Each structure stands twice: as C-alpha cells, then as structure tokens.
Known about the structure:
By secondary structure, the protein is an alpha+beta fold. It has helices at about 5-20, 20-35, 55-65, 105-115, 140-150, 150-160, 180-190, 255-260, and strands at about 40-50, 70-75, 80-85, 95-100, 165-170, 200-205, 210-215, 220, 225-230, 235-240. It has a single domain (about 5-265), classed as 2,3-Dihydroxybiphenyl 1,2-Dioxygenase, domain 1. The chain is built from eight helices and ten strands. Helix 5 (about 140-150) runs antiparallel to helix 6. Bound molecules: 2-oxoadipic acid (OOG) and nickel (II) ion (NI). 2-oxoadipic acid binds near residues 257, 260 and 261. It holds the Pfam family HGLS.
Amino acid sequence: MHTDRNALFQQLWRNYQEVTPSAEEIHRILGAEEGQAIINDHIALRTFNLAPVGLDALAEHFLSLGYVQGGEYHFEAKKLYARHYEHPDPDAPKVFISELLVEQCSPELQAIVKDLVAQVDPDRVKADDFLYSGRHWNVDYQTYRTLLEESEYAAWMAAWGYRANHFTVSINHLTQFETVPEINQLLKDNGYAVNASGGEVKGSPAELLEQSSTMADRIPVQFSDREETIPSCFYEFARRYPKTDGELYSGFVAASADKIFESTNASG
Ligand code: OOG
Ligand code: NI
C-alpha cells in the first residue's frame, strides 16, 4: 500500500496517460487556457467482485491513506455495484470504485472471469503498485469478443486490468470555464467526441452534480494471440453545486454514472 497519496495519484496518472493520449492533450488545452494547475474531482477504478480483487480489496489502498467510505450505487442492468470514497482533505480526489457482480452473469462469462482472476497473485493485490499494474492474466482476442457481447465492462476489465479508468477535471476549480456545456464545446472544437448517451450533460443543478466525458481513446492492445485496437480510457469533467449547508455535494448520481460507464463502449 502507498503511504504517500500524491505519489499514488501521480503513478495512476502516468499509467493512465500511457493509454489515454487525449487526456494529456486536453489537459494541455485547458492548462493553456487556464495557466494554472488542473484539480481532479475524482478518479474511477473497475474490478470483478471475486476474491482477491473485489471492490473492498481496491478500497483498502485508499482507506490506508485516510479515505472514508461515502455513498453506494447500484446498476441493475449492467450488473454493477459501486461505492465512492472521499478524504477529509478537500483537495484529495474522490475515488469511485465499481465491481461486476459476476454471479449474476452467464455461466460462460463466469467461467472466463474466474479463470482470469485465478491468475492474479493474491499477495500482489496489496502491493503499492497494484492499482496501476494493468492485466494479470492471459486473454486472447476471441475471449475479449465473447465478453464484449455480454458486458462491455467485463471486456474492458479483461483487456486493461488494473488502472484508472478515468480522471475527472473539477470544473469548479477552473477560472476560464464555468459550465459543462462550455467544456463540451471546447472538446468538440478540438475534435474530441463527447459521450452523448443520455445527453451530453449528465445530471443537473437539482442533483447537485453535472458531468460530461469524452469517448475513450482507441489504443492497440496486445492480446495473447494478436494485437487489436480497442477503447481504452476517457477523460471526465464535473461541476458540483452546494448543498443547503453551503458545502459542495460530494456524492455521485447513479443515473449519470450509468451513462458514463458507456464512455468505454465500442460505439457511442
Ligand atoms: C465509472 C462510471 C461512473 C461517475 O463519475 O459517475 C463515473 C466507470 O466508467 O468506471 O465515473
Ligand atoms: Ni467519473
């Protein structure tokens, strides 16, 4: 486990950038417009609900850094469960961790995923670098395609393994931009696809959170039998609104999250 929060997020960012060239470009576009550091609202991680890699095992890395558990979220159709974690330091990015409820999936998917997870060394899960260690299993392209037919999430996990699925820019901390539609326009002006599932702006002031995201970059992956280009990771943008007590809302909105998961789908 990391003992230094900044070191963990730096490594997560470095590993994410390797497969998300658009994030660095957009970072630069925003940075150029902003002339100041970009603050992350949150990052997201994915996993399967199987020992030794379930949501709780990933969360341990953040609990040991002083994070506390926040809300929980259910995604029945996608067969996902998620929780968020937040830190007493308001500058610390929040963490959204989801897991696929494998037992609800087909026997074929269950067999494939159990075989992948069986290849993970249980001791490695607690290691400093686990959260950005990528894939711990052999998987061929046809197996990826089989998973893709049933669960985009399972296929993404099989191909990419453990890494930040996205980083999220805090729009509240930007000075040149205030709204999600402004950011979406900037993205489109620079040639990026905005996830339009459920609308380009997800959430509302009434829900205290508005979000948008790019569609994932497409990057070549080395499967055990061949290389194929598939969706990798995406970049997200969040604007939070104050609750009645004046503090910014720190939770997530399940209906919005449900659509943001689709940013890694093969077609938006
Ligand atoms: C997480 C999707 C949900 C949010 O901010 O609501 C999410 C994922 O795609 O793994 O990031
Ligand atoms: Ni997110």
